[in-house]
Protein 1
Amino acid sequence: MEAEINMAELGEKIVEVIKTIYDPEIPVDIYELGLIYDVFINEDQEVKILMTLTSPNCPVAESLPLEVEEKVKTLKEVKDAEVEITFDPPWGQELMSDVAKLELGML
């Protein structure tokens, strides 16, 4: 019988992986920047990540979502990962964590 997957623990692991991905223009990880809006995990351990970019013309608009998908898929508990990009609501500095604001000298 398969071991029961703790969804909260898996969510934390996914966030830890996401925190290793940095915006190329800002020295802060994309989670602390507030680019990740939500992480959904279904009972089949398929992950859907709702994220945004700092702007629709972001130079990594193509590669950043793929990097997120690929890194999340490296977790053995994850069967599949998909990133959906949204600009609703649009990203703004108010979405940044205090850690990100401190790193950028905004606090």
Protein 2
Amino acid sequence: MHPFDVETLPAGPWRNGGGATREIASRPVGAEEFGWRASIADIHRDGPFSAFPGVDRTLTLLSGDGVRLTCAGEFDRLLARAGEPFGFSGDLALDAELPGGPCRVLNLMVRRGRWTATVDRVAGPVAPRTGHAGVLYVLRGRWQVGDHALTSGQGVWWDGNAEAPAGAVVPLSADAAALWADVVPTG
């Protein structure tokens, strides 16, 4: 497992100037077209979201007063509760509105037909399964994975190796909550 701290991940500004992305992992490494990708996005202002044809996305609010995602004729969804995932097709042209100002989201993207993903809010022990990849992001409290203690804004990610990483990720405090993204190959 690969530990990370969001605040130490380099932030790359969006082309439209509306935010910045901190990449957690993108697989396969160095590939022109990712199979799956996890990142943290800081959304600074209202504006369009980039389309990602052939990709399924799950966005989860981490902090801020929310983000309203709209796609004409498809949906109008306000993500207002931290830790509540929302999945949608990356093929869609979306607009984002920030009713209460800037916010931060976890963005998980998987190449349709090659990977599927589920994102769940968890409060108990979780363990990666053999052949799966994924991310655990700590929302609050303290968690333990191997020799690493994790707190809010930290986490771990892992590749879909043939063997599951050893051990579970376990909560260490009564207020512990995390996002568990399970990324599964389809073929």
